[in-house]
């Protein structure tokens, strides 16, 4: 088992709804952790969009002439089908793939034991390409669990308006979830918070507003940048000297009190004015929020029809760039959902390619 660490920063507010209406401050609520009540991006949303973006990246690599007739791909050498340099693109099973491999299977009851006679355009998931192998597929007489397992994307730094400008709040618990350990620093107690800085510390106590909450704070001279992973290189510049460490029992209250809330209305197409009774409010995770998660990759027995984990990692890294343009979650046409995603490998248990690979991959 090996994996990938995922860090992301929201470029737009992110809305992933619970699928219903509530009576209260907002009508459309977002997904929260059932224990901490802190908003999150569910692993199912992350995995579903990653599958779509992986298939989109794969299909964009096909030459136009072969995209029109997928069956002609079998008659050519696999390396002639693509005009892109990425190795994962040339995985042999990709000659069966279509954009249908990105979504829900359109024909899950189809029999397709005969590899050479599969009718790819009407089969739903092809079951052979790197997308199907990575994320899984299921047919009437043949199914396979995916290689990749996606965790939720949890908040580790949350932006809040203060008199000192935007500050990013966090807590010991949130940092430990992201494997960031604060060493040689005491933790805030009660309602007190710490403003972390690498400048000269201010021993005096003062107050800082975190949204509508006014709390006492102490400035702590602590080199927190040394504890942050290398993937934070882009993010470090934005949050350095703007981190506020709050007690674990306050973090949920502060986050939920500072979510973005928007009021929207439907427009009557005949009058051009707002439609009667169509006013609703939605909450969202604000832009600038920083998340952490991981993708675990399972090694499979050596087989020529399974992509090696190195190719899977390469595909996921390439596909992650689409989050900057197309985003995640709902209401993306209203300016929600975009985020920057940074993916990097962590220490692996053994050789990445022990899980098998195609003949083309082994030669490359």
- Work out the count of structural domains: 2
Number of helices: 8
Helical amount: 10-25%
Low-confidence stretches: 347-364
Distance between the termini: 23 Å
Share in β-strands:
25-35%
Class of secondary structure makeup: alpha+beta
Task: Tell me the Rg in angstroms.
Answer: 24 Å
Run of helices and strands: EEEEHHHEEEEEHEEEHEHEEEHEH
Arithmetic mean of pLDDT: 81
Shape: globular
Quantity of strands, as a count: 17
Main sheet record: 11 strands, mixed
Can you give a write-up of this model?
- The chain is α+β, with helices and mostly antiparallel strands.
- It has 2 domains: 2-151 and 287-363, no CATH class; 160-260, no CATH class.
- It has 8 helices and 17 strands.
- The chain has helices at 43-61, 64-68, 130-135, 172-177, 233-239, 248-257, 309-319, 359-363; strands at residues 2-10, 17-21, 28-30, 40-41, 137-138, 143-144, 148-150, 153-162, 165-170, 193-197, 206-210, 213-221, 243-245, 260-267, 274-284, 290-297, 339-345.
- The strands form 4 sheets. Strands 1, 4, 7, 8, 9, 10, 11, 12, 13, 16 and 17 form an 11-stranded mixed sheet that branches.
- A hairpin with a 6-residue loop joins strand 2 and strand 3 (28-30).
- Helix 1 crosses helix 7 (309-319).
- The relative contact order is 0.23.
- The model is unreliable at 347-364 (pLDDT under 50).
């Amino acid at each position: 088992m090996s994996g990938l660490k995922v860090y992301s920063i929201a470029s737009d507010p992110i809305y992933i709804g619970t699928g219903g209406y509530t009576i209260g401050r907002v009508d459309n609520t977002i997904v929260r952790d059932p224990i901490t009540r802190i908003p999150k991006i569910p692993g199912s949303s992350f995995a579903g969009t990653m599958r779509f973006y992986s298939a989109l990246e794969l299909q964009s690599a096909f030459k136009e002439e072969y995209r029109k007739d997928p069956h002609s791909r079998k008659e050519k050498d696999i390396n002639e089908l693509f005009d892109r340099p990425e190795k994962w693109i040339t995985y042999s099973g990709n000659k069966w793939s279509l954009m249908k491999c990105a979504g829900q299977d359109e024909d899950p009851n189809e029999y397709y034991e005969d590899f050479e006679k599969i009718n790819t355009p009407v089969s739903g998931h092809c079951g052979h390409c790197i997308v199907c192998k990575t994320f899984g597929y299921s047919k009437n007489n043949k199914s396979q669990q995916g290689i990749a397992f996606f965790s939720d994307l949890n908040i580790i730094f949350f932006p809040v308006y203060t008199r000192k400008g935007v500050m990013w709040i966090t807590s010991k618990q949130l940092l430990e979830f992201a494997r960031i350990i604060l060493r040689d620093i005491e933790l805030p107690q009660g309602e007190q918070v710490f403003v972390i800085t690498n400048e000269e510390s201010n021993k005096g106590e003062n107050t800082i507003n975190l949204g509508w909450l006014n709390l006492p704070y102490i400035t702590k001279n602590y080199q927190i940048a040394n504890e942050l992973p290398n993937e934070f290189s882009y993010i470090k510049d934005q949050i350095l000297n703007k981190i506020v460490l709050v007690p674990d029992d306050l973090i949920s209250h502060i986050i939920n009190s500072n979510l973005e809330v928007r009021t929207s209305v439907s427009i009557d197409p005949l009058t051009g004015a707002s439609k009667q009774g169509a006013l609703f409010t939605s909450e969202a995770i604000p832009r600038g929020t920083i998340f952490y998660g991981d993708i675990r990759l399972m090694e499979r027995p050596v087989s020529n029809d399974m992509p090696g984990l190195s190719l899977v990692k390469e595909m996921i890294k390439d596909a992650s760039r689409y989050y900057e343009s197309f985003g995640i979650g709902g209401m993306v046409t209203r300016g929600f959902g975009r985020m920057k995603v940074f993916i990097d490998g962590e220490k692996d248990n053994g050789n990445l390619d022990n899980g098998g690979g195609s003949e083309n991959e082994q030669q490359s």
